[in-house]
Automatic annotation (TrEMBL):
The protein, known as: GMP synthase [glutamine-hydrolyzing]
Organism in which the protein naturally occurs: Streptomyces taklimakanensis
GO molecular function, one term: GMP synthase activity
Residues annotated as binding ATP: S29, G30, G31, V32, D33, S34, A35
EC number of this enzyme: 6.3.5.2
Enzyme class at the top of the EC tree: ligase
Full protein: residues contained: 205 to 530 of 530
Subunit structure: Homodimer.
Pathway: Purine metabolism; GMP biosynthesis; GMP from XMP (L-Gln route): step 1/1
Annotated GMPS ATP-PPase domain residues: 2-200
Keyword check for Cell division: no
Keyword Heme part of the UniProt annotation: no
The protein's role, per its UniProt record: Catalyzes the synthesis of GMP from XMP.
Record-level GO cellular component terms: cytosol
Length: 326
């Protein structure tokens, strides 16, 4: 029978068998998957795990601070923070194709992990315990949708599956590869992770980079970060966090429409609200949010975020839409 305790026991044994006496690193994204994967590996190999948090500049407002504080406080894990904003934004410059963005982000993550791994070894002061293992919080649906599972689907390249570079030198450790999100949350609970981590809404590794339809620039990211923060604030204030699976806010950066504000004409961008309800992200329905909440979000975003003059609601289920727009 499936129990979270059994999964923990099995996976801890499997991780020990795979890693032996070597070292591993784990990329933390702030999401529940990488947090639970890291906690499992920490349980298996203790301080031979170092977590790496890559600040790629595609994070939401307050996200970096949260990873640095909450997760370390809960687990006492060793954390290395890498500021890689310039690296990612340079690599993404001029790129609007969604799959190309995903591949670039996946590749840059690995390059940053490689560099971090050699620094960690150097800091540990011994040449013979090189980091050979990379822990990832890959879930079953990520594998299937990237075309890497038994299914034939190839819907989009999740950054940590189909988006990996071909010359990968790390051996992957993926203790959640057979699990769905609700099971991961149960495992996280079993491992004693706090509610704020276990019940966090999903946020994709490529971050806001795949929520800007068009080229990713720092100005566009700043604008989207503001709009997203307002939507999250209002959804939380309305007590809807646990009712929705997640609510991407998407910036249509190449679209402009005419508006009016005060006495003047505006010619700004629309943002899309994409609230969804789901069990496992393989399918989803659009969430019927209360009109008052939608109205508050719309009013605040158009008042507070310069250059956004329209808020639209995505009322498409998955299929035929995916949850993210890219
Ligand atoms: P889609 O857009 O495929 O999203 O319906 C399904 C779920 O997966 C998340 N997602 C990702 N998570 N790396 C991740 O860690 C990715 O590359 C990625 N792409 C999508 C998405 O937020 C949703 O929860």
């Amino acid at each position: 029978t499936w129990t979270a305790a059994n999964v923990v026991e099995e996976q801890v044994a499997a991780i020990r068998a795979q890693i032996g006496t070597k070292r591993a690193i784990c990329g933390l994204s702030g999401g529940v998957d990488s947090a639970v994967a890291a906690a499992l590996v920490q349980k298996a190999i203790g301080s031979r795990l170092t977590c790496v948090y890559v600040d790629h500049g595609l994070m939401r407002k307050g996200e970096s601070e949260q990873v640095e504080k909450d997760f370390v406080a809960a687990t006492g894990v060793q954390l290395k923070v890498v500021d890689a904003e310039k690296r990612f934004l340079d690599a993404l410059a001029g790129v609007s194709d969604p799959e190309q963005k995903r591949k670039i982000i996946g590749r840059e993550f690995i390059r940053v992990f490689e560099q971090a791994a050699s620094e960690i070894v150097a800091e540990a002061g011994s040449g013979d315990d090189a980091v050979e293992f990379l822990v990832q919080g890959t879930l079953y649906p990520d594998v299937v949708e990237s075309g890497g599972g038994t299914g034939t689907a190839n819907i989009k390249s999740h950054h940590n599956v189909g988006g990996l570079p071909e010359d990968l030198t790390f051996e992957l450790v993926e203790p959640l590869r057979k699990l769905f999100k609700d099971e991961v949350r149960m495992v996280g609970q079993e491992l004693g992770l706090p509610d704020e981590i276990v019940h966090r809404q999903p946020f994709p590794g490529p971050g806001l980079g795949i929520r800007i339809v068009g080229e990713v620039t720092r100005e566009r990211l700043d604008l989207l970060r503001e709009a997203d923060a307002i939507a999250r604030e209002e959804l939380t204030a309305a007590g809807l966090d646990r009712d929705i699976w997640q609510c991407p806010v998407v910036l249509l950066a190449d679209v402009r429409s005419v508006g009016v504000q005060g006495d003047g004409r505006t010619y700004g961008h629309p943002v899309v609200l994409r609230p969804v309800s789901s069990e496992d992200a393989m399918t989803a329905d659009w969430t019927r949010l209360p009109y008052e909440t939608l109205a508050r979000i719309s009013t605040r975003i158009t008042n507070e975020v310069a250059d956004v003059n329209r808020v639209v609601l995505d009322v498409t289920s998955k299929p035929p839409g995916t949850i993210e727009w890219e």
